[in-house]
Amino acid sequence: MGGYEIREGGKNGSVEIVDGTLVRTISRRLGKDDRQMIPLKGISSVNHDRKRMKTDEVTIYTSGASFTWKVANADDFVAELNQAIAGS
After folding, report:
1. Residue 5 · residue 67 · CB < 8 Å
2. Fold of 3-87
3. b/e 20-34 (16+ beta carbons within 10 angstroms → b)
4. DSSP states of the chain as a string?
5. Distance between CA atoms of 56 and 37, rounded to whole angstroms?
6. Which residues contact 32 (CB under 8 A, 6 or more apart)?
7. Which range, 30-39, 41-50, 52-61, is most confident?
8. pTM
């Protein structure tokens, strides 16, 4: 399972599915990167909004928050995420 490049709030980052969790990392200029672990069991739904210029938006809904990212290979990411959620 590979990582996917994302863009959130004007900042570059990545998401990766590892051992039943979705690891979100946003790059910072100074200091440590902003990293958040989202358990796959806590994800209630995934919304894929297809755009024309290959910058599809993917929204992840959890019980406490929602995350919206622009993802370059959104079709692959959503397929892999849904498969991982179904397997957990």
Report:
1. no
2. PH-domain like (2.30.29)
3. ebbebbbeeeeeeee
4. --EEEEEETTEEEEEEEETTEEEEEE--SSSS-EEEEEEGGGEEEEEEE--SSS-EEEEEEESS-EEEEEETTHHHHHHHHHHHHHH-
5. 22
6. none
7. 41-50
8. 0.86
